[in-house]
Amino acid sequence: MEQKQVREVRSHEQAALEDVFFGQSVILWARWSVILAGAVLVLWTSKTVDQLTQTFPFFLVLMAMNFFLHGRYVMGSPLNRAVVVAASIADLVLITAIVVFWPGHVGLNNQFFVLYYPVVFAFALVFPRRIEAAYTVLAMLAYTAACFARGTVSFAHGAPDLKVLLMRLIVIAAMGFLGNYYFRIQRDRLRRVSQGTPSALEELKTSLQPAGRRAHS
């Protein structure tokens, strides 16, 4: 008996809601990785109790927010798209605050800029290109503003500082692009499976076969 092909019955809106629902775990674990890395760096670099009390609250706020979001997800009541976006923007605000106010190392001299990478990449794995691009640009603008606001980067300092800033901004942009590229690959794969059509890899293999073999396949 010939097997019937399964046709996709999900609408675009339903697919977007499923992406947010299943993708929340990616953002949650990315945030936990940021918290863990930050806490380790704080404990490693803090030389006095006073310095520890000045720096650790940044990550306590992030930890409290993620406990709430993760608890909602585990209990089966995840947040909607707007709240997930708002929480991700709050991540950028906290990371930017670390870059601006970290004792002794601010702006371009603050090594916590690497925390932008996982949150931008995780966000790009969940949301479509338009929203991801806006979030990535927001992260780049936030970091640029933090560096200029603290005076660690300026046109008066010359090209070296601007070159370092530009390289870091390019990496942030790459995180967003690569994450969203993988997101679109997975979305296309699921669409092809639900429609019963061959995957892009199978189409490539078929096109590379000799004409005689394609005729018999």
Please provide a written account of the structure.
- The chain has 217 residues and is mainly α.
- It has one domain (12-216).
- Helices cover 75% and strands 0% of the residues.
- It has eight helices and no strands.
- It has helices at residues 12-45, 49-74, 81-101, 116-124, 129-149, 159-195, 200-208, 211-216.
- Helix 1 (12-45) packs antiparallel against helix 2 (49-74), helix 1 runs antiparallel to helix 4 and helix 2 runs antiparallel to helix 3 (81-101).
- The longest helix has 37 residues, at 159-195.
- It is globular and about 55 Å long.
- The two termini are 18 Å apart.
- The model is unreliable at 1-9 (pLDDT under 50).
Strand content: under 5%
Structural class: mainly alpha
| Number of helices, where a helix is a run of at least 4 consecutive DSSP H or I residues | 8
The 3D shape can be described as: globular
Order of helices and strands: HHHHHHHH
Largest sheet: none
Protein topology:
Elements: H1 12-45, H2 49-74, H3 81-101, H4 116-124, H5 129-149, H6 159-195, H7 200-208, H8 211-216
Helix pairs in contact: 1-2, 1-3, 1-4, 2-3, 3-5, 4-5, 4-6, 5-6
Tag the structure with descriptive keywords.
217 residues, single chain, disordered N terminus, 8 helices, mainly alpha, globular
